[in-house]
Amino acid sequence: MYLKGACIFLINREFDNFNEKINNLNLKILEHGCLNAGNDWNFHSLRSPFNRLYFVISGKAYIKNKDNDIELKSGYIYLVPLNNTYDYTCNSYLNKFYIHFRLELLPGQDLFEGWSNCSYVPIDVNKIKELVEYAKSNQISELIKCKSIFLKYLSDFIKPQAAKLQEQMRISAKYAPIYRYILDNCFADLRVTDIAKNFNMQMSTLSKNFKNDTGLTLKRFIDNKIIQKAQEQLLLTSLPVKDIAFSLKFLDEFHFSKFFKKHVGICPNSYRQRNNTYK
User: How far apart are CA 247 and CA 269, in angstroms?
Assistant: First the structure.
């Protein structure tokens, strides 16, 4: 507000796309808990369709793959982005609070999609214990505090990757209608020709532009989304594999299992058994 002569002028400023971005920022907590693990916390070649966040309270463990060899230790938070394969090992004991989640700005497009490395930031152990107490609460005020703390630390992970994330979101915004269409029609019978026809585009042009922008063929992108949907149902529900196959519109369980093993390396039942014992 400022004065000009005898008049008072009120200036109001709004920020581009603020409402849309804030309202579209969707945090989904899929699993959580406090884990006290011993030397039986040993798992090989695990790959999750969601992000894992570990708040280590005490103890020590290790996660590693061909690019990373990371020690999990007290006083740190570790982010394991979705769709990364790691070996997990504990030689003595590990006490941690864990959250498995997805964070989306566009439907079906996780902000950590394509991140290839586990990363970590420091945290006071007392802050972890405080967060756990908030998570236990039924009071809405404390649950809001819990969510705000969680988002604060996620922002700490995102900040060093801001430039990369901006480019990622630029591409996601460009293909947002197509991503939404794939999300709504994420079944085994979805074809690239269906997408091109729906958006009145030449299939060759669509496929070429998508590959140039994302590094993936559109067919591979669709297959990845079907696999992700299947993995989530295997890990987060108790549906029989046969029912999951039909829900994704495969001809039968055999064709679903063949498709799953081609992309994941093991059959659906083995994937469920291996990953359901791990937190």
Answer: 16
